[in-house]
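Box 3.1 A note on notation
Throughout this textbook, protein chains are presented in two layers. The first layer is the amino acid sequence; the second is a token string describing backbone geometry. Keep the layers aligned when reading.
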Amino acid sequence: MPNSKLPTSSGQSQVDAFLAKVKAVPARTGRGRLAFAMDATASREGTWKTARAIQGDMFAAAAAVGQLDIQLMWYRGLAEFSAGPWTASADALLGQLGRVDCVGGETQIAKVLRHVLDDTRKARVNACVFVGDAMEEEVDHLCRLAGELGVLGVPLFLFQEGTDAVAENAFRQMAKLSGGAYCRFDAGSAAQLRALLSAVAVFAAGGRAALMDYGRRQGGTVLQLTRQMGG
């Protein structure tokens, strides 16, 4: 089985492509808004605690910049979908995360995309991050919604946990149609995913200046990533 961790050469090329896409997103003026959606179905239960910790670090990094509002969305179970309020509070987001556990059910990615479309028609959403491991819906429908987001200037940044080929094909197409990016990760690449998510959030919140400052303070992998994103 091929190794899909981010640090491998093939994984690194995915990261490089992802960072190039993020770099192309225009710098923000005023406050940014980032929609963050998670698959909370049973297939992710084994890595759920790790994923929550990683995403919590992302929220804390964004809150430190102070220019980004985040909305947390998740789906699970029998058609259960939730979208929280927009907030810049890392504590509020962590509180929401702490109340979510995995429950078996099918994917509801279309609900996520429709919600983001509705929101950005009211007030601009600058980007949407999605973290999941599967796709059990009509791919053409998802691609149409992703294309609509692209027309409205909302890039999708899709992180796939695991190696499901159906999900990968769909996520790659959705990223392309929205003007966003796709990247795969697994349980062994938690540190790289944490760095990438946090750097994306800081960049969305405060532009390249905030990104470079964050990289200098964090060092290590984050600094390497931010140098690539900062150009």
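The two ends are 34 Å apart (CA to CA). The helical segments are 9-24, 48-65, 90-98, 109-122, 139-151, 165-178, 190-218, 220-230.
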